[in-house]
Amino acid sequence: MQIQQLVYQSLATVAITPAQLQHLLPTWRTRNHATGLSGLLLYGEQGVIQVLEGSPASVHQIYQRILRDARHYNVHTLADGLVPARAFGQWSMGFVELGAPDLSRLAGYVSPAQPAGLVPSHPQAWPELTALLQEFGAREQSSLITS
């Protein structure tokens, strides 16, 4: 069975602290688990990059909710298609807070801090972007093991 994978980027209308996000994550994780979604949420300097994985219907339904969510603006789809396997299947929603060094590593692909630059600079480089996102995800998993 192939999996729908959607990657989007947006800016938060209001800065959200990591503590506020940690408070919201259990609700989002429960909803995602119930609908068979997995993925990763990256947040830093009001920029959001999220990977959603699951059935096409579930992924597109939650993405439509995100598009209507007043907490997001400048929402851009970076990738949307079928993949042979989940890249982030271990989480209903992994969360990584990005710092300035992380954002600069992503800058070669997307620019979370600049609304005008919210498109991938190298669309053919998605395997490398996926690998980078998985690296950030591995950091999340490592921090859960050590805490």
From TrEMBL:
Transmembrane segments: none annotated. Pfam families: BLUF (PF04940). SUPFAM superfamilies: Acylphosphatase/BLUF domain-like. One of its GO terms (molecular function) is FAD binding. Residues 3-94 form the BLUF domain. It comes from the Bacteria. This is BLUF domain-containing protein.
